[in-house]
Amino acid sequence: MVITVNLGKITFDMNQVPEELRSIVSQKTFSSFLSFAIDHLTRNNYKNIHLEEGLLRFERNSEKLQVNFTNLLKHIIARKHPIIGKQRSWKKSTGDYLDNFFSGITFTDSILSDFSKAKTYLTVRLHSQTAYTEKSPFDSIQHHVYRIDIPDTYIVLALDLPNTFHLLTKKQIEKWGIAEADLFEIARTKVGNQIEKITAKKRDWNGVPIVTLFDGDYSAAYCSDFRNNCDNIIGEIGSLVAFPTKGSVFVHMISSKEAFSEALPIFSEQVNKFYTEDPGPITNNLYWFDGQSFIKFDISHQNGAITYTTPHPLVARLNAR
Description:
- The structure is a single chain.
- The chain is α+β, with helices and mostly antiparallel strands.
- It has three domains: 2-112, no CATH class; 115-193, no CATH class; 196-320, no CATH class.
- Helix content is 37%, strand content 28%.
- It has ten helices and 17 strands.
- Strands 10-11-13-12-14-15 form a six-stranded antiparallel β-sheet.
- Strand 10 (199-205) and strand 11 (208-214) form a beta hairpin.
- Helix 1 (27-43) packs across helix 3 (86-112) and helix 2 (69-78) crosses helix 3 (86-112).
- The longest helix has 27 residues, at 86-112.
- It is globular.
- It starts with a strand and ends with a helix.
């Protein structure tokens, strides 16, 4: 199914509902919601509207904006609507959601103009490098404020605003006159204060002890500063760590070669299950935290199977025990 909008002949390829939505919406419902959103944006003079990887993108007065269409749809579907007039109710809810988003833009602008206000909202987000592509300049990582502490991922500076996370750009922080390193330190302190929202639990998965840290918004960001925030779950030979989604982190404290060999297949199986099935995927990479930094396992794919190769420094440590 293809929807064409008379705004520069914008075309939406609607052949597939995103995988994470297939269990809750049909193709017809997904298309209806997209039509509601397009109509509302068009009436408000937004141009160049297009849907890309779950994000609805548009422009007005040369300003590029985006809203998470997947979150919009989930938010509205989760609400109870009357059976009679459901389509009409969905249409109104879609417009209300977008109006609230636009109000949030005004709120964000007021914060960005004053560092004393912005400081309160600073945070970090953990994203896979594959989330950014030069094919889409709007999402180029070079526009954002980031650091790489975990291989194949970006730790991106953001504002933790009501109902949304706003990724900061280099242009937006220029007026503050604060060094990026200092901003990251402030942000990580703020993330560290989210510990009460994170559910940490030691589990026994088929005889393998694994610590899980769950929270829909903060788990990955919190554990990205592993040395400071997770020092109590660093094993004798470091820890096996994974960040499958933004809301889940898995840790196995390494104590011996035998225990590690038993843990690795079970650990990797659970990581891939969460990575493929849960919302907000980041990466199915595995990492060894050696006490100071993250070292990535080599990963290969063949005939539908995934193979992880233990880093040589970890092999040496395990053999030396």
